[in-house]
Please model this.
Amino acid sequence: MRRGLQTPLQLIEMNTLQTEHINRLKLQDALERGYCPHGHSSEANDLALLIYHLGGANLLYALNQRLHIPSLRTLCNKTCFVKLTPTISHITVNTIKENLQTIMLATRMNTGSTVTRCRGVSLMIDETAQEEAAVFMPKSNSVAGLCWTHSHGVNTSLNTYQAALNIVSTLKEGSVHLGKEVTDGFYPLLAAPTCKTEDVVDMEYIYNTVMDGWEQGGGGEYVDIWSFATDGDATRRKAGHKVFLQTKISITSPLYGLLANMPGLNLYTGNGYVMLNFNYKHIFKTQIYFRVLHTSAFMRRHVP
Ligand SMILES: [Zn+2]
Model:
């Protein structure tokens, strides 16, 4: 975060310049004490949320005292905050279970969502760019941000000064790396820093660990997993074929009669009838890429 480079008020001002969607006038009014929301409208709550994310709890407290912006407690009562547990060191079932409970199950219960067994979910895997940096995690007293595939070779706990020096030296040696991207999803069950060196076996491990964590964490009691969607990455797709195209639906299954003669569809699934799927965003991207490629090749060939 750039919190240390500018003051929180400068951050807010900078954000108003960059984002059209923010109500710039009211924000400026608030800074000049011309806007004092009392009824805690949705706009005031949005403003408080923005202040909290940009300047933290201290700035929100100061503006709450000075300008009657909704307090953090009010915000917590009206907004559903989720806390993602990032993966530190190797990916484990426990991390999946914890995130499943705090992010999906608890959130849906708090918002009054009805979760029924007749509804299914599709898990998706993708990567999001992240700032390459090691960060201190007070809750576990350890260092996060190291790639999950190699961080098992270093002690990430920060119990001594020497432990910090050891992490620095292993980073310099190259035996562990800072994560370039984070593997995640909409209800994020997993946020694991990756140095993008995973092979098919690593990906199979991720799929199986997520599925095991889902079942062990109680996800299966509320919602069935229908499919697991991968992005366009060839390694993830190959692992997806291995994990989710391994069992052919039995001829005695009621589904067999429905699906056996459908052209273009196969009868293979993973455990628990979980099917392999593809994130349509990446399919569209591939289509557009080929169309653009085809068009440019056509233009080169036929247009002088
Ligand atoms: Zn690595």
About this structure: The pocket of zinc ion is lined by residues 147, 149-150, 176-177, 195, 197 (CB under 6 Å). Residues 93-293 form one domain. The mean pLDDT is 79. The chain has two domains: 9-78, 93-293.
